[in-house]
Every structure is written in structure tokens, then in C-alpha cells.
Amino acid sequence: MKHLYITILIFTFSLNSWAQEIMEGDLLFAYSSTAGKAISDATVHDSTALPIYHVAIATWVNGRLYALEAIDEGVVLTPYDKFNERTTTNGGMLVGRLHDRSGVDQSVSNAMEHLGKPYDDLYMIDTQEIYCSELVQLSYVSGKGQRLFPLINMSFHDSDGRILDYWREHYAKYGMAVPEGALGTNPAQIASDPAVEIISE
């Protein structure tokens, strides 16, 4: 029991120490071979890349670290320890940092304005609902106020170009065709953007 207690203390210390290294506005990328598989299968076509399926924004509030994220419950502030436990249980987490941080404070402020908005199950832009990478794409600006991350043509297909059955069934529930090629964004795109440096794995 004593050894277990020491192990827990070391783990907690390591977690808290690492959290202290995370800066305001850093991007927290979740990856997994199982969780979020439909998203990563459709957006990560490089076989050597990690299957990234989610992105959140790191923000410090009253000395405590949170992940500002769009999840099923909507746009919420999740305590970092809870976010870290969730992502590492399902796979792992990467931390990305902007090369140019001159617009970080404004970017986080922009993102906070979306708190409470519902989650966008259709992954469509220009709606009141919002999804994870859309939160980042809408919010992040340079020091001159210009959007950092461009919209791209959405991908719902596998590496062979075949639209995945998951997405056909998902959109059929809403009486829609899969919006393949529509403008949007995804977590893997943001992680690989030249504006972002991955500082941890």
C-alpha cells in the first residue's frame, strides 16, 4: 500500500508539473486508434501520422488550467485533469503551441465568447452550433487580427477515397447526403498547420 501511495503521489506531481508548462492558448490534441475513429479515419490519411480526433484550447482561469472545448455537452470549460484523464484513457494527447503568440490573448477571448453554444453534430459552418476544430478556426487570430487557420474542403472518406459507411449512416439520420467537399475544418488539419509547433508527445 505504501508503494502504491508513493506511485500515486509521483504521478500527481508529474501531471501537475506538466500542466504548469502548458501556456495560455496552447492547443490540446487528442489521439486514439479507437476513440473518435470515424473522425480520424476520414481526416488522417498519412499512415505514419497519429490518429487525431479532437482539439481543445488550454486556458488558465483563476490559477487553474482548463480545456475549453466543444464536446457533446456543447462548448464547455473542462478542468485539465479531467480532460487529461479522458484523453489518455482513450489514447494520448499532444500539445501544440503557436509559433507567433502575439494574438493568443485575443484568440482565447474570442473562443470564450462561444461558451454555452450547442455541439454541431452535422459539422457545418455558419450555424449556431459549433464543433471542436471549428471553435479553434473561428477564434484564432494573429496579432493583426487575421484568421490563422483556413477553411478546407471537408473529408469524410478513407485513404482510398471511399466515403465511410459511418458517415453515410450518420447523415442519413438527418435526411442528408454526406457533405463531402464542403468547407470546414478538422483537428488533424490544425495540428499539421505551419502556424503550430507540436511541443510534446
Describe the structure concisely for a colleague:
By secondary structure, this protein is α+β, with helices and mostly antiparallel strands. The chain has seven helices and eight strands, in the order αβαβββαβααβαβαβ.
Structure description:
This protein has helices at residues 2-21, 37-43, 80-90, 104-112, 132-139, 165-172, 187-191; strands at 27-31, 52-61, 64-71, 74-79, 92-98, 152-153, 183-184, 196-200. It is of the alpha+beta class. It has a single domain (22-200), classed as endopeptidase domain like (from Nostoc punctiforme) (endopeptidase fold (from Nostoc punctiforme), Alpha-Beta Complex). The protein is globular, with a radius of gyration of 17 Å.
Amount of beta strand: 15-25%
User: Which secondary-structure class do the elements indicate?
Assistant: alpha+beta
Oligomer: single chain
CATH architectural arrangement: Alpha-Beta Complex
Contiguous low-pLDDT stretches (5 residues minimum) are: 1-17
Shape: globular
Mean pLDDT: 90
Counted up, domains total 1
Q: Order of strands across the biggest sheet?
A: 4-3-2-1-5-8
Encode the helix/strand succession as letters.
HEHEEEHEHHEHEHE
What is the number of E strands?
A: 8
Proportion in helices: 25-40%
